Amino acid sequence: MRKLLVLALVGFGAQLVDGSLGMGYGVTSSTLLVLAGLTPAAASASVHFSELGTNLASGVSHWRLRNVDWRVVARIAGPGAVGAFLGATVLSSLSTEAAAPAMAAILAALGLYIIVRFVLGVRPTLKKALTLKFLAPLGLFAGFVDATGGGGWGPVATPALLVDGRMAPRKVIGSVDTSEFAVSVAASLGFLVGLGTAGINWGFALVLLAGGLVAAPLAAHLVRVAPAHLLGVAVGGLILLTNSRTLLTSAEATGGTRGVVYGAVVALTVAGLWVTVRRHRRDAAPEADEQVREPLHV
């Protein structure tokens, strides 16, 4: 009973992070299930089945709060589903461990760039809409990584779209979360083909689902009301933190080294949030003064 309660709380927390920052559900939940004794394939399958419900609830919540760009969803969801199905069936037996450190280094660099960009207030000048030529390969790769690693759709797709800069952070998060439903469906079908129902813990999947369903509407509301610059810095910090963990694990770093690196990442993120808030208040002050000084017209 205690284990099920812990799983429900993990599902709630993972979905709260995933729905508000665009990543984290799969990686967090899969890690816990592996620690609970499931094989990596069974853990990934259980998580993807639970995501069928959480992603649907999250997508509906983001849609109702207008956090979704349906043109992006239409262009990235299909390729993402194809990549997820391939990753869960034909290609799931291939090891992605060798590529994990290289990908983590790239994503960590993207996370650092996102923090710097939002702290400095850099505004991209790209005006054209995101094209299928850009979104299709991104969706295919993110879907494949998601199925083979038990999570990865958000950590790959979200930073790529944020770095591109043509979408507001809340639109990026809402669109990535909504399109993930198609990825979860395809991955689940792939696991049924490759594994059948053997090894899948349906009880764990349902408990994770229950916790995630409670968190989905709250997370979508947080995205709606949170300032874009704060979302950007927070997402960048999460990307940097999760990929630093992958790099430290591959390097077999000691506990002390890990603590120093994690502390530095957290300190950088907090400092970035503080600087961003101060800059936002400073920029808003002249506008407020101008409104106060504006003469009344009788």
From TrEMBL:
Leader sequence segment: none
Membrane-topology descriptor: Multi-pass membrane protein
Cellular component, GO annotation: plasma membrane
One Pfam entry name: TauE
Primary location group: membrane
Keyword Ion transport appears in the UniProt entry: no
Annotated TM spans: 29-51, 72-92, 98-120, 132-153, 202-223, 230-248, 260-277
Localization, UniProt: Cell membrane; Membrane
Keyword Lyase listed: no
Keywords per UniProt: Cell membrane, Membrane, Transmembrane, Transmembrane helix
Family: Belongs to the 4-toluene sulfonate uptake permease (TSUP) (TC 2.A.102) family.
Protein's name according to its UniProt entry: Probable membrane transporter protein
Protein species of origin: Friedmanniella luteola
